[in-house]
Amino acid sequence: MSTRGIIKIVVFGALLAGAGGFLGLVLRWAGDGWEHLIPPTWDALYLGIWFLGALVAVAVTGGLVAVLLRPLWVAAIAFAVSALAMFLAWEISLAGFIVAVIYLLVGLLYLLGVRREIENRIRFSVWHMMRPQLILLVMLTAIACASLYFGYAAEIEREGFSIPEGTVDWVVETADEHIIDRILPDEATTEERQDALDELRDFLEGDVESDIKPYEGYIPVGLAAIVFGILTPAALLISWIPLLILSLAFLLLTRFGAVKKVAKAVEVIRLSIE
User: Fold this and answer.
1) Cis peptide bond upstream of 71, omega within 30
2) Can you spell out the DSSP letters for 49-109?
3) What is the pTM assigned to this prediction?
4) Contact between 184 and 192 (Cβ < 8 Å)
5) Is residue 163's pLDDT more than 60?
């Protein structure tokens, strides 16, 4: 292989490693994201947007590597380096190592899926990569939710379960606006109204937390499952964006001579009557 070809391989591999590092950074943010989820805040929306951006980055750079890097083991090394970058950017721990290994396995499955789709087609098109990419996006979403789970579970293990103060304030404010007037009589004074709200706050911070405490180990799982159910449709909804970017990227790379189209003779198997 020429020096120019090696440089191109290094560049595409570095792009995938950068995307893996970016994903790891977003996963680090997701580990503390539970604070913004109940009730949902603008920070949770921003975190979701960053995560979807990381998905697009990994899908685009992973697609470039899967299609262009030859032989297969070179592309596999690129995904391994990307997994290492994600591990270092997110969390150097056993949980981080496990997630990085899962990321690597998902990347290798994506790589094999893309190669299989390409080999089974007479003419190359990025849209043939749709099925492997959908699997990649869903699995990366599951990885992000695993990060959320590990972060929240670690917080509960350190501090014990408590309803976030923002959640308590949100419930009390909602009750003040929509519920208290229906419960209290019309002649209720301002003091009685405030007493009712204070009792609700004490109930949330006392009785509810005590009742939930025996089941606190299941709370991170439930929260991660809810977030997975929300993020997965969003990830599938934007699945066309990486393919569109890849289509434009391949067009530009071909136009400027960075890559070239190669015609190969293949053996086609058909059924016939003897």
Assistant:
1) yes
2) HHHHHHHHHHHHHHHHHHHH--SHHHHHHHHHHHHHHHHHHH--SHHHHHHHHHHHHHHHH
3) 0.81
4) yes
5) yes
